[in-house]
Design a protein that fits this description.
heterotrimer, A alpha+beta, B alpha+beta, C alpha/beta, B: alpha+beta, two-stranded antiparallel ribbon, elongated, C: Alpha-Beta Plaits, Dimethylsulfoxide Reductase, domain 2, seven-stranded mixed sheet, six-stranded mixed sheet, 34 strands, 20% strand, globular
Amino acid sequence: MSLVEKYPEEVKAIFAKYPADKKRSAVMPLLYLAQREEGYVKKESMQEIAAMLDLDTTEVASIVGFYTLYHDEKAGKYRMQVCNDLPCALRGADKFLESLCGNLGIKVGETTPDGLVTLEAVMCLAACDKAPMFQLQDGDKVEYYENMTVDRTMELVEALKKGGKEIK
Amino acid sequence: MRLVEPFLELMTGMMTTLKMLVTEKPVTVQYPEEKKAVKPRYRGRHYLTRYENGLEKCIGCALCAAACPADAIFVEASENTDEKRFSPGDRYASTYEINMLRCIYCGFCEDACPTEAIVLGDNYELSFTDRRQAVYTKEMLILPVPQGGAPTPQVTEPGKFTRSVPEMKDPVD
Amino acid sequence: MAKLINLTINGVAVTVPDGTLVVDAAKKAGIDIPVFCYHPKMEPVGMCRQCLVEIGRPAIDRATGQPALNDDGTPKLQFMPKLETACTNPVSEGMVVLTATEKAKAGQKELLELLLTSHPLDCPICDKGGECPLQNLTVEYGSSQSRFIFDEKQRADKHVHLGELINLDRERCIQCARCIRFQRDVAGDPVLGFYQRGRLTDIVTYSDPGFDSVFSGNTTDICPVGALTTADFRFGARSWELKQSASLCAQCPVGCNVTFNTRREAKSGGVMAIKRVMPRQNEQVNETWICDKGRFAGYHYTEAESRLGLDAASMESALSQAADKLAAAKSDAVFLAGGRLSNEDFYNLKQLAAKLGAKAYLYSPMAGGEYTTAYGLGAGSNLGDLGKDDTVLVVASDLYNEAPVWHLRLKAAAKRGATLIVAAGRATKLDEFASFVVRYAYGDEVETVKGLAGKEKIGDAIKNAANLVVFYGSDGLGLAGTSALAAACADLLNGKTGKVNNGLVGVWNAPNTQGAYELGLAPAADLKSELKGKTVYVIAADPAGDDPALADALKSAKAVIAQDILATATTQMAAVVLPAAAYTEREGTYTTAERRVQRFYLAVPAKAGTRADFAIFAELGKKLGVELEGRSALLVMNKIAAEEKAFAGISYARLAEVTAQWPIVGRGDLYYGGTGYENKLGLGVHLALALTPAPSTSGRGGQMRPKENELVAVPVSKIYDLGVTMAPAKLLGQRIGAAAVGLNPVTAAKLNVENGGKVQVQVNGVTAEAIARFDESISTGVVLIYRSFGIPISEPTSVKIVVAEKA
């Protein structure tokens, strides 16, 4: 089902925000809309958005690739995105990530068997001074966790498991 | 006087000859029945080497041909696939020829080779009755498959040879 | 003329126009600044930081607003505390640039060290090795030691196929974005993009098929590393082993200058073989680009298995037989020549036909050459000069498919401010860049052009244009239609004839159709009836393969003599076959549709048992008592220059002349302009305008337009087809696709045809299967049939479409 069919009102509202000759600006909100239901943007949605905005599919895909808040693959309920760019790595992000993998029993890019947490390594999240850090995503809600240790992270995962934790 | 002096001189010389005849062993070698050992760094006819698993070391880069001052080497490369693999990297020499008449045995090809595939051996017995015979092809140059290795082309499992060139270490001598 | 700016680079005084970038100013002064991401044909982005230099500008005294002076009265210079990029800084008056100071050198050196931290040591097997900017700059500017640990290099995917034509090695990529920017800004096909960020940055394409652009090969030329390489040349040879032969692309009438890279090859039996096609700079024709058809299809047909050849004795007897047949036929002979022949071939052919009193026709699906010769582009014209106040009109042509490099150049002209008007019966890729798009129903071409001048804005753009260039093509038209269209287009150019950057250009389907017209050849209005009972001499054409009706006509001929490089349906039915040498195997000249005569040179030795076409004509002439020049193409050109007014003054020496071109590419500094070649063997010469009175441009029209409940098939062209020169290119096979017909969905609905569904097409007495493709932009009742896909179509004609039964 195409976006226009699924969310006719929303698409209309998004288009109304931008002048007709600058409609390509609508790409970001449309992508949010596209990943609302399944948590990721399908290739068909990218193609549809590209056609709507007179862009090339590759240009739309580039935007999905650039931002950590857009995804093109299905994942668990929560996405745990650990930054391991240079400054974070210097503050131990690599080791943190490695040990987190061991504790969760998965590799980077994989989802825990219960489908709860997907662990990802991402580029700069602009919190270099507070590494090791990650952002936790639940749908379009995001929360930063800074100066983290593996123990505290595992506590967080337990809390998520029990459902006793809400992401703002 | 006139007669004795030259005779004495002749005798002195002959004495040295006679002495050598008795005390020194002959240096003449009865080639080809008997062959003389060459020095360790002697540069003779080339051969192309293999890895222990039988894959060829040559990656067809043609740097030997580029380094050759006599333009004696000709290389043509092709791409390896997992179904038909000759060397561990992406590329192998589908044609490798050395014209032994042009070769000056300088060993530059050996120096240029990034994978130590071409090596100058100690074979100096090169003779031809035809110019074409002097062109050694890859089949003539390559060493036989070592014990435990498989002949090329090999069928290899996908994902095993993913590098463009095999891992290389600085040569040790 | 822009204001001139004076500056000093490394102590050398340089004067350049305002707006020039420091890196270009240095280049003009002969000083090289290393670059990776900067390319003279694209906007600077300053991404790679390799061009770091020290830049000092005259300091301004803040109190007085006047330039501050040193104690000795010289202007005081203010240097930035850090190095600056030479590619993003435009020059300014009094600027002092230092590119080789210790500080600048250290910056350049360290940048290279950082780039190499993640670059693999693939040089021995990399196709770019030997002509690699990163390799060259490392040797020139870099350090032989790295402080980083080799074993900790980043590993990434090494075999990514961006489609079947271009391979990506992610490890080698240095993220300069030249390829992405080329596709977006120069080609207008933004099918490449960055994905992810930081060290995960990746080049991706989401198009289908992958990297869906006809300019994709150019990205491998401008890639400063071996990240993008072509599948065609993969491991073909090392760059230093290749010889360069200047030549031309013979796939379309643009006449792109190319260099064939050749080497001796065991696979080809130890003879020289062409290994790849590279662009050769000609800023007036193709700049530094070529399209994928030229690069990947280019020469492959000349080495196809179906090449003809005869041993010396058979050749001699074939020539005698042909001569006997022609002598017997005399004025009953008909010559039919395709646009692949060179000017020299056409000239000798014309002389031979004239002596026999026989008719000589051009075999072309498109007419109107009498107008392009009379109203063609004036000498000195250059599409690259078109800009503000100029107007370009493109009628009935899909340039992206028919002449891709013109598409690219007109897009650039529109960007420079030229008014681009695209009039076509369907949506074309050029529409996006056009100022005005005129959509007409197929059949209304001539009326549409006649009506353009009367339109308000478009009419003004045409009437008030400082320069007007009109391109007309054969999209949906046959001979009669293109002839009428050419007349209507020429009418717009009345009063501008012969002026620089003004004129009519025919988008032909062959490299030398214009040359044939300039030498007085033209297509026959009714070819079939011309052939009946005659002795037909077909050269470089395959009428029998194109159209069964023409095959029948040839069967009804008294005798058929065929001369070609490849075995075709026509050579199969010929009584005498004369094998010709391909253009890569001989010398000659082509006339581009822009009326520029250009030379091509011998690249590889002629295939055994073949002869150049002009030499075959001369040989036949000898037997028939006509003295023709057959010794060399140069001597034939001397005769042409002496006898044909349009060619007056042209000689091989003049055609080989080169003047300085900007940007400077192809020299030692491959990092600046890419690996395309410098032009050392001739930019070509424009023809003089034919002095004969221009043909009348009035009173023609009347096209076939579908009536109610009628279907009309019209011929259109696609870049990759199954034509003789295209089909042997194996690599492009996947992009050719199956025969297809284009339909408006409304038309299709009436026929119960689905998009992508199989249909049976009944046209010109042939029933063929094709895939239906919907195109909302075309008028109803019209069926687009692509030429050279096995369905014979040359003129608009009625057609029947039925849904193919499902198996």
